Amino acid sequence: MTYDLWYWDGIPGRGEFVRLALEAGGIPYRERARDPGADESALIDDMQSARKHPPFAPPYLVAGKMTLGQTANILLFLGEKHGLAPESLEGRLWVNQLQLTIADMVAEAHDTHHPISASDYYEDQKEEAARRAKVFREARIPKFLGYFERLLDGPQAWLAGGVKWTYVDLSLYHLVDGLLFAFPKRMATVAAHYPKVLALHERVTALPELQAYFSSGRRLPFGEGIFRQYRELDAA
Description:
This protein folds into 2 domains: 3-82, Glutaredoxin, CATH 3.40.30.10; 89-207, Glutathione S-transferase Yfyf (Class Pi), Chain A, domain 2, CATH 1.20.1050. The termini are far apart. A 4-stranded mixed sheet has the order 2-1-3-4, with helices on one face. It has helices spanning 15-24, 40-47, 71-81, 89-111, 126-151, 167-182, 184-190, 195-205, 208-214, and strands spanning 3-6, 29-31, 60-63, 66-69. Helix content is 50%, strand content 6%. The longest helix has 26 residues, at 126-151. The chain is α+β, with helices and mostly antiparallel strands. This is Glutathione S-transferase.
């Protein structure tokens, strides 16, 4: 089966968590908002079309007659269907729990530059963004990364503890990648406290399964979207 992935074109965003799993798993898919002649209205029209289980927002995955929304839900499905998660129910629920924790940090990272309203421009909430970003840098980055560092304690190389990566390792990679882009000063300061997290980031960077994607034009650079680089929001 070839899946249809729908997400806004032009930004990595939450869709990148799904892309990484599809690409690393060698799973056929089409990025429908990037079809020739497609534009933002194509995604909106599709999202509003009649469906048994309509998505609230992208990303969403069309798998035959099923429509799956929410990043963690999509990855839960792909993980079980394509062997990107542990075989046991306990293991699959564990990596889903970790994915939801990543989603919490992603939401907080986004809110550093849109703390009042996602509908308003950053320039209209810069004072509030500065306050929110300071708390995120000083308290929330250490709290989240410290948690993942503890999970990697010992000889295990991957979050689920096996000898092979699962989709949540790819997601932690993308989260760290986004933080390195958006908060380079802060991450340079705290990196020494999370060597295992940064080592996992490097292992995913080197995965043979992802090299073709990383070198292709399909991978979008950071800029707009969740992870944005505002120099005034970053500090050591």
